[in-house]
Amino acid sequence: MFNEIIGLICQTDFVFSIFRITAPILFAALAAVVAEKAGVTNIGLDGIMLISGLFGTLFSYWTQSWFIGVLGAMVVGTALALMIGFFALKLKTDIILAGIAVNTMSSGGTIFLLYMFTGERGNTASLTSSNILIPTVKIPGLCDIPVLGDILSGHSVLTYVAFILVFFTWVLLYKTSIGLQIRAVGENDHAAESVGISVLKIKYIALGISGVLSGMGGAFMSMYYSQSWNTGVVAGRGFIALAAQAMGHGEPVGTMFSSLLFGFAQALRTKVSGIPGVSSNLISAMPYAVTILGLVLYAMSTAKKVKRKKVQEEENK
Asked: Hey, which residues does 155 pair with through a beta bridge?
């Protein structure tokens, strides 16, 4: 069995699937990075992705344009993130509870909205057509390269966008004035306010960007990955993204590698499930086991850093 697993891992289609599976996690993880940098935890990522995925599918169906569907999902994601911000920042509700409320609302609310708008019950499979699905891209030149072309060419448009956004998120946070303000507010909002930065405004901006990114992740899931929307389409990826952000120490590049780790675990689950004699229950738990293991390792490394910092402070005294 071990040799079979190694053989599966070495196949080009397995590596291809890692990038495809990683993309929605990466969108949500980058959303978590931006929000966390501003000192606001967007725990409602899972619910935002589910609701945005539904509206992305609906907008694309109504307009017969996948591009408008993605834009619609981004707008809905932004609105939901700003709603969390309104309850947390304006009405002084605990932001964790506000995020949990969005997650809870998404499970039943989307079914109601789908039935209200289309009369469908539970999924949009009957609405699916080639016009409303996100297209794949064959990169000229690259697709002709053996092995590498099979891995890197032929992905969805949003798959490439997800990895490109890692660079742009880094630029936003570390090479722009708004990024400097986001980091300043996250590190010490009182100090930021004392130098004239509008803390409330920056937190809303960070949550808005977080909503845009998670909305794209939701659109990816419903308009490419699953080819249609259903109530289980997100499958906890918003929570996995929070773990990826934590494991990546809140940095875009580190978060990308953490997301790839989770993508690898899910791709492995899909491939290994076809091997005779392997327990399906054990395989289904694999991505979540990796999530828990990753968080444990992250907690251990953080504890060591805190301990080392305390030792250095004592030595300096």
From this structure: 137
CA nearest neighbour of 233 among 2, 55, 37: 55
Contacts of 77 (CB under 8 A, 6+ apart): 48, 49, 51, 52, 211, 212, 213, 214, 215, 216, 218
d(CA 225, CA 235): 12
pTM comes to 0.89
DSSP one-letter code for 123:
B
3-state secondary structure of 167: helix
Helix, strand or coil, per DSSP, at residue 137? strand
Structure tokens at 145: 């390269």
Contacts of 36 (CB under 8 A, 6+ apart): 42, 186, 245, 250
* Structure tokens, 129: 């057509």
Ranges 142-156, 159-173, 227-241, most confident: 159-173
pLDDT digits (tens, 9 = 90+) for 81-119: 999 999 999 999 999 999 999 999 998 899 999 999 998
Look at residues 164, 257, 173, 156 and name the one whose alpha carbon lies nearest to residue 210: 173
| Residue given tokens 């590190």 in the structure block | 187
Q: Rounded distance, CA 74 to CA 117, Å?
A: 19
Per the CB < 8 A criterion, the answer to whether 81 and 210 are in contact is: yes
Phi-psi region of 126 (alpha: psi -120 to 50; beta: other; left: phi over 0): alpha
Count of Cβ atoms closer than 10 Å to residue 36 Cβ: 20
**Which of 213, 104, 102 shows the shortest CA–CA distance to 168?**
213
Residue pLDDT, tens place only, 24-58: 999 999 999 999 999 998 999 999 999 999 999 99
User: Got the DSSP string for 69-99?
Assistant: HHHHHHHHHHHHHHHHHIIIIIS---HHHHH
